[in-house]
Fold each of these.
Amino acid sequence: MVPGLYVVATPIGNLGDITQRAVEILKAADVVAAEDTRNTRALLAHLGISARLVALHEHNERQGAARAIEWIREGKSVALVSDAGTPGISDPGAVVVAAVRDAGLLVVPIPGASALTAALSASGLSFDGCVFAGFLPAKGAARREKLAALAAGPWALALFEAPHRVADTLADLHEALGNRDVVIAREITKRFETIVRVPLATAAAWVAEDPDRTRGEFVLVVEGRAPAATANDPLPILEALLAELPLKSAVALAVKITGGKRNELYQAALEIRARHE
């Protein structure tokens, strides 16, 4: 193998989803850098692969990046894997990839299973574009600001969520986005895979009906909507943001979304607030 960093996608559930190329890379690599060596060791054992395993997770990613660069400069090949799916997609890996690229060294993607694309492909939703939001902030102002920003755009939305927060997230999405449809994809490629399409208005209740529906890993895909405003007419966006955020935060976010002038939007925000007082 040519010395470099090989970013290897691994199965998200069904082990049959490993690609032939991924198997060949994992067999041939000098080092396999894994988010959790225990999980990766089990996968490699299933594949009959004996490899040098090192831990590379979110807590040691910068040190791991330096080690990976050193190995590659020594002429070694490094395979980077996460617990499931593709490294760097809401998983550790982006820091290592950026560091290796900045060092002028080779980075090679080895694509494969992805919970995001699997959920989109089975959603049945039609969309011109989709925003991947990863995991929302757990709570507080950061969560409200993120939801307000997502609500202002016209695109379909895809996000990951943990089981203990999925019902609250569905309720928050309904409050922020209105009654669009949402596809709830749970345990994709696994034994209890579930993919349903329901209105956001009833989504949290649907999850609460059965304790099993709050188990596993979730991808949520929310249908898009027609644009409510353009950069030439930013006031509807500004008004929606003011309903959820402090004035300065709403103005700053409106500037980012619409490209409008800050001073003009700030004055408009003052007028909107005055009308509602």
Note: The chain has eleven helices and ten strands.
Amino acid sequence: MKEYLRYIFFSLFGGMVVFIFLSLLKGPGIPRRVERIRVITHRPPLTYRLPDEIAFCDERIPLEKRHVWERLDKEYLLAVGNTPQVLLWLKRSNRYFPYIWEKLMEEELPGDLKYLAVIESDLIQDVRSPVGAAGPWQLMKSTARKMGLRVDSVIDERYDFHRSTEAAIRYLKRLNRVFDSWTLSVAAYNVGMTRIQSEMRRQKINDYYYLELPEETERYLFRAIAAKLILSKPEKFGLILAEDQYYYPIPHDVVDLEVRGSISLETIAHASQTHLKTIRELNPHIRGHYLPPGHYAIKIPEGKIDTFEENFKKSPRAIHVVKKGENLTNIARRYNISISQLMKLNGIQRAETIYPGQHLIVARGT
């Protein structure tokens, strides 16, 4: 009897297990999971195809040459795939492209040249390369000076967007007079005029697409073309920004300063009723903390000229940095003030001594 009951129990238990297993296989949850996988798997892939005809600076790109097409296709896909960087290009272009375009049109140069600033610096003003190129157009010191920019420890106009743009355009115009080809001119902007001329003589080739050049230079033109293709039609890639998402030009005014002694940027900031950080952001070309004697054009927040001039009259205008071996007597004589005036301006007691590196007020505003 016990054996019979045990047999019935195991039969019923086994039947329940089989029933539950079959129910799970046929249950409503499994088809939905399979359906989700099917939908994801069969989603149409995103594709990016180069246009059949492309020109840069009004010069046709020979895409029928397979090696040209492949080099451009590579840079195009690399750029398209970096969505955050492309979005930053797009946002910053609204701040910088209008001025670049205006200056290019004044010089009757192709508007496509504005894309060189994109691939040089990502449209960032205060940037420097490991080899010493600086600013939004990544000019080397020697080139910048030849193009009329001031480059020293106090002022480096390569970081001034407006001045460096004008210098870069002058340089590009000069390069095109030499090469009479924008492809070669753009390559020379990257690697230098002398290097391109030397390689053309050595290789006996005057075609950019067949010249053997440093890898960066061989990619350079194609990177600029890729930037053009994306930024000229951002909606093609789903890059659609609302008006308030763009970066706008920072409104500012310019004041002319004639500094007699030395002046700190804090003094300029206080006279403008703004912050030191704001003055630095508006004037990245000022590399030091003090301006020595000389004439300067300083950018201050828009609408602050009257405020600046009024406050500046009340501010210490000239500061002298004490050098080794100097004393109050020869400093006072240099700035044509009395020793007592110099001591009063700086709150110096007669028993105090001055030291190298100390900053002394030597004149007030007038």
Note: DSSP finds 15 helices and eight strands in the chain.
Amino acid sequence: MSNTYSQLPGPLNLSLRRGDQFGTTIDFDIDMSGYTVSSSIVSPITGNSVGTITSTITNASTGVVSVAMTEAQTEALQPGTYSWRLEWIAPGDVKRTALSGFVEVAR
């Protein structure tokens, strides 16, 4: 008997208003001691970077990560739909895209 599993990132779509501060926390419910995280916002068509999103581990022992953007960072995005992803590097240089989805930017 074989087991089936998925190595694909979990889906998480974000919505925000251009020019507003944005932030949320994500609980992975794992010990993330020794991990680093990073996020990016990209064009879903070209894959080129279109904005900055800041990701920070706020509680490593329980796996809580903050994802945030300042007013200036959201103002720099034109209204529309973009892709985003959150990646982590676990101890031993194990890289994984943990979450991905769309960012809907409203006027």
Note: The two ends are 52 Å apart (CA to CA).
